[in-house]
Specification:
Helix content: 25-40%
CATH class of one domain: Alpha Beta
CATH architecture of one domain: 2-Layer Sandwich
Number of helices: 4
Radius of gyration: 21 Å
Largest sheet: 3 strands, antiparallel
Number of strands: 3
Distance between the termini: 62 Å
Shape: globular
Length: 124
């Protein structure tokens, strides 16, 4: 009986370890089936900008993931093309107060940004 309990415990611990090893990474480089990915060059300068943009885009219809790489200032958005378009996502970035590619930020939204998140601020 002890041998059976020991082998069962060993089997369960190995199964748990194997299940942990097979988890998908948090951020993937490719979009899932039925989704598309778009990238925008932004005017974001810090981690506060990162959290503000990612949170803002999380509320946009059809957006499944948004990730800003602060050093390169590139925002990568994974979205459902049946629910939104890259133009709508670019507008959402603008309304948050940041430039999106060659299109400048909404002036009122930009004025509401903290001073450290403005284009003239040094990266920190």
């Amino acid at each position: 009986m002890k041998a059976f309990a020991f082998s069962l415990l060993t089997l369960l611990s190995l199964a748990g370890t194997a299940a942990q090893a097979q988890q998908a990474p948090v951020a993937t480089a490719t979009a899932k089936k039925g989704t598309e990915m778009v990238q925008f060059k932004t005017s974001a300068v810090c981690d506060m900008c990162k959290s503000r943009l990612e949170k803002s885009l999380a509320y946009e219809k059809g957006v499944q993931a948004a990730n800003l790489d602060v050093p390169s200032k590139v925002l990568t958005v994974t979205y459902n093309p049946a629910k939104t378009t890259p133009a709508a996502l670019r507008t959402a970035v603008q309304k948050t107060g940041y430039d999106a590619d060659a299109v400048t930020a909404d002036a009122r939204a930009y004025d509401r940004l903290p001073d450290c998140c403005k284009k003239t601020a040094a990266a920190h």
